[in-house]
Structure formats: C-alpha cells, structure tokens
Write a structure and sequence with these properties.
Length: about 150
Amino acid sequence: ERLYLCGITGHPSGTGTSEVEARPRHVQNRAEREIARTAVMALPFVPWEYRSSATDVVHELRATGYQVVAVEQAHTSVLYTQAGIYRPPLCLILGHERAGVGPAALAAADLCVELPVYGMANSLNVAMACALLGYEILRQHDAFGLLPL
C-alpha cells in the first residue's frame, strides 16, 4: 500500500516526503532523472514516503499490526519458501544493495528470510529480490483462495 524509501536511497523530491529536504539540488535532480528513467511513469501511482530511519518505520508499522519481514542473508534467516505463511498486513524490509539491511532494522523484524543465490554473486538487486518475494507471497495467498479476483 505504500513504499517507504529510507536512509541513503535515492528518492523523488516534493510530496510524499515527511522530512525536510536536505539534499543539494543537483543530487535531487539526479535522483529524479534516475527514478523517472527506471519507474517508467509509475511514480504518480505508487504512494511513497521518504524517511531517514527504516527502524522508525518498522516500529510504527508493527504497532499497527504489521508482520515485519527482513530480506537478508543472516545467521537467523530462513529460505523464503520455507518461512511459513506471510501474514498481511505485511512490511518487507529490503536493504541497501551493498550494505544490506541495517542491524537495528534486522533486529526489529519478526522474521528474516533469504533468497538463494548461486554462482559468483552473493546477492540480488533490490528490485529482483522484491519481485521474487512478492511472487511467493501472492502464490501462497492465492493457493488459499485469499486473493480477490
């Protein structure tokens, strides 16, 4: 229902931002160009909000009943297809492509899942990870007849 862009990630300027814009104008412009190129006109249709702390968002969502699932390779992670049923409302924490999910956000999650990666690389980009996990969530709930037609 909402995309929270947190920390050092690129994000659009303007509405949707709950915090004061502190980035230099050239940084804002570059982020907006990159997002416009990759979002392919989806930006006006995806509710979003920039927040500096993912952990704050996680605590707020948990307080309103969300299951919080971190997607990360960690000692406590389980394979995403063996994690049981993902329960809506659901908050997925997808980390920075190099740094991953921060320790505080990871500790605040109800569950940590990982996606298997074979070969030389040890991670997937955020979009691919989100797509794979999103498909699994939809597959599970469709199998139980929970998705509206």
